[in-house]
Amino acid sequence: MSGIGQRKDDHLALCAQGDVGFRRASTLLECVRLVHDALPELSLSDVDTSITLFGKTLKAPLVIASMTGGTEEAGRINRELATIAEERGYGFGLGSQRAMHVRPESSSTYRVRELAPRTLVLGNVGVVQARSMATGEVRTLLEDVGADGVCVHLNPAMEIVQSGGDRDFSLGLSTIARLVSELGIPVMVKETGCGIAPSVGRRLLGAGVRHVDVSGAGGTSWVGVETKRAAAAGDEQARHLGDALWDWGMPTGACVALLAPLGFETIVATGGIGTGLDVARALALGANAAGIARPVLRALSAGGRQGAMKFLDSVETELRAAMLLTGSSDVRSLRHAPHVVVGELGAWMTQLGREDRDRK
Ligand SMILES: Cc1cc2nc3c(=O)[nH]c(=O)nc-3n(C[C@H](O)[C@H](O)[C@H](O)COP(=O)(O)O)c2cc1C
Questions:
Q1: Pocket lining: 11 vs ligand 1, CB cutoff 6 Å
Q2: In 84, 92, 191, 233, which residue has its Cα 20 to 30 A from 59's Cα atom?
């Protein structure tokens, strides 16, 4: 197997079975207290969880977040998850299409369109790879899989811990600006577990970006994943750096709360979303949808298709309950649901929010 293929399979195995969550940091979504409505005047069956994202209707505000592609195992997982997304009406993100670019023979492991004809399918490229690709080459990768939009992922923390990973992150913003102006399909800038701060959000808006997936801290630590790989390979220097940075990043809840007022068209809250209550809290803070990666993979790995469906059922059931109990008949009203912010999330909002006010 090629180096990139081996890395993809290592990532899948570590995320499905390994202990790679954040250690002490959380999403801070637990600091959002939704205000109970004792008189919701709604029937549970009337709660409408549908949204429109990139012109497609989703039955629930959920995206199975970008994970994989490039190996046989990755192809099997993509097909399984894409058919679940089709059946349930979720969005579906493909993993980085770098492997497909380097080894076009692996393209079939990304092709899910026939199995998921109605699904919102998002392609995926890393900003560092896109920097050295012509826009036409990126477009070809996306057309090949019938993508409705593309996630351009940012992952500097993971790369600097990865043995042999990227070290040069220059020209990222101009690469993104070029893709936004030339690609002709929606571009969503996406982190991979360390979050997007409001200062970065402002730079992205200046480059023409309208859509972000915060992929914040509190769920899967990609520094953690690479630390485990470094330890297994005996790379002591990388392991040491990875242990120090394991919990690096801005919590998902703080990213959403601080990006919400900036004027993006779409904010997807990924990173540590494990329950329907997490989804409800992220939406009340201003997200349009929530993304889930590793918890879906773990449920699939432990219980097969039924296991993944059962996990997603519980997320939807909790979300519906939270909507009823906040008197929210639809997602639009959930996004305005009264809530109180307590604890550390309040500190992030006050201190970085103040930075915003000082700039005005
Ligand atoms: C096995 C696996 C592979 C991933 N590969 C990619 C990828 O290729 N591109 C990307 O943008 N994000 C990738 N991610 C990151 C997720 O999309 C997500 O941002 C991150 O894991 C945080 O979400 P979580 O806490 O729900 O796992 C991957 C996640 C997992 C679990």
A1: yes
A2: 191
- Distance between Cα 217 and ligand 1 center (Å): 12
The Cα 7–Cα 343 span in angstroms is 39
Q: Are 116 and 85 in contact (CB under 8 A)?
A: yes
CB of 65 closer than 6 angstroms to any ligand 1 atom: yes
**3-class state of residue 291 by DSSP:** strand
CA angle 146, 266, 173 (to 5 degrees): 80
Closest alpha carbon to 81 in 315, 319, 298, 318: 298
219 lines ligand 1 (CB under 6 A): yes
Helix (H) or strand (E) holding 187: strand 187-190
Pick the CATH number of 3-359 from 3.20.20.70, 3.90.180.10, 3.30.70.20, 3.40.50.300: 3.20.20.70
pLDDT at 1 over 90: no
Taking the whole predicted model, whether its pTM rises above 0.85 is answered as yes
Check pocket membership of 326 for ligand 1, CB cut-off 6 A.
Answer: no
Smallest CA-to-CA distance from 172 within 199, 190, 148, 154 is with 154
Domain boundaries, the chain: 3-359
The HSE-up count of residue 82 (CA atoms within 13 Å, CB side) is 31
Alpha-carbon distance of 153 to 135, in angstroms, equals 16
Q: What's the residue count for the chain?
A: 360
Please state, in angstroms and rounded to a whole number, the distance separating the CA atoms of residues 175 and 96: 16
pLDDT tens for each residue of 173-192 = 999 999 999 999 999 999 99
Contact 147, 123 (CB under 8 A): yes
